[in-house]
Amino acid sequence: MGSGDAFGSGGRFQTCIALGTEASAPPHVLIDCGATSMVAMRQQRIEPNEIDTVLITHLHGDHFAGLPFLILDGQFRRRTRDLTVFGPPGTDARLAQAMETMFPGSSTIRRRFTVHVREHADRRTSELGPLRITPFEVSHASGAPAYAVRVETAAGAVAYSGDTEWVEALLEAADGVDVFLCEGYSPAPTRWHLDLDTLHRHRDRFTCKRLILTHLSPTALASDLTEWQIAHDGLHIDL
Length: 239
Description:
- The structure is a single chain.
- The strands form two sheets. This protein has a seven-stranded mixed beta sheet. Strands 1-2-3-4-5 form a five-stranded mixed beta sheet, with no helix packed on it.
- It is globular and about 50 Å long.
- The protein has helices spanning 37-43, 61-64, 67-76, 91-102, 169-173, 196-202, 218-221; strands at residues 17-19, 29-31, 53-55, 83-87, 115-119, 126-128, 131-137, 147-152, 157-160, 179-183, 211-214, 229-230.
- It is α/β, with parallel strands linked by helices.
- The protein contains seven helices and twelve strands.
């Protein structure tokens, strides 16, 4: 739903990836929930109250700042389904802080549903309903550890790099998955982010079935991208 960088380059929404575990059912899982995600969900006709799990890669606003709006939307529209947020250490405190900054009193009000916050740990696999979730710590400064995430279901497996410099853990996260959504932020090396030159050097080492670039900056979007598959808002992939 959102394939852009923090600044909406190319007119794209911030990071938000919707996953469904059954072809006939609406998506109920998000990987990241950037500040623009409520707009993206409504544009893509995905019902926010159907989302029951949000996996957060790191605690930057373009990856998690949509959570307060998702929670408040549920409160005002009488949501009853609990919401599980799975994120880096410190997610609970950062979420409360963000909610209080934007909507004072909103983090402590009683709701008809509960927000359960769970924390990632490097390579510790968790079972969450039909999901098998494995985070891999990467290198991106965000005030808390940052992670790539791998999600496996009976239908297939997807991995997402999150934001990071090159780390070998990306190869493990993407090993054998059907789709690896990978940051391709800039043409040349940039601190804390993946770049096209580095990805090109390591491309033959990936064992994923498909590698799709996302989170591109203006300079990356203006580059020669003919050798890459590029994500766009609204891209739908069946596994």
